[in-house]
Amino acid sequence: MLCPDCKLPAPGGAPCPGCGERVPERETFGGQGGHYLRVLALVSCALLAILMLYPSRHVGLAVGLRRLFRSGWAWLLLAINLAPLGIGLYYWFLLREEEIVVTDDYIARSSHWGDERLVWSDVQAFRRIPMLFSQTRLGRIAGLSEVLAGRRLLARLPRAGYELVGPEDAQGEPSLLRLEPGTIEDLPWLLQLIQERVGPPEEA
Question: What value, to the nearest 5°, has the Cα angle with vertex 159 and ends 135 and 86?
């Protein structure tokens, strides 16, 4: 494992050789569904503000809203306004089970797409695969992983996927644990933990 403060390697549960603090025995990473929901809820709030204020810019809020509802367009505009919130709820639901656990012995992932687990001693390769957001399982929505993340406007997460390759299964296919940008929280820290166990990734 790595000390979260000093970034120095040490066994989980042991004191860090640098700062003396106890190194975590396991690190857990959740999915980014909550992030997408927050960003798209902000978009919905912004659209709602525009919907309410634009018709009222010359006549006042009360008169503007009355005119808007009498026009018959209000419900259509309200539905359009709530669409981003609905999309955010969908991706929150899709990623609510997403979780990666890292220990000194293994890396395990639970997700909507199934459960995976690899013991570090079984990892045969670690690959970096250049990947656009549109090529991920989440599609282009994964680009929102860079918006308002980690209290910064842009988190600048690497636009690449990563694969941990394990032993072959009964059908002769290698087992893969795949990490995609826009899916996992704090992907840079997760990659540091992986590299501490298996070394830097190879370019695919």
Answer: 60
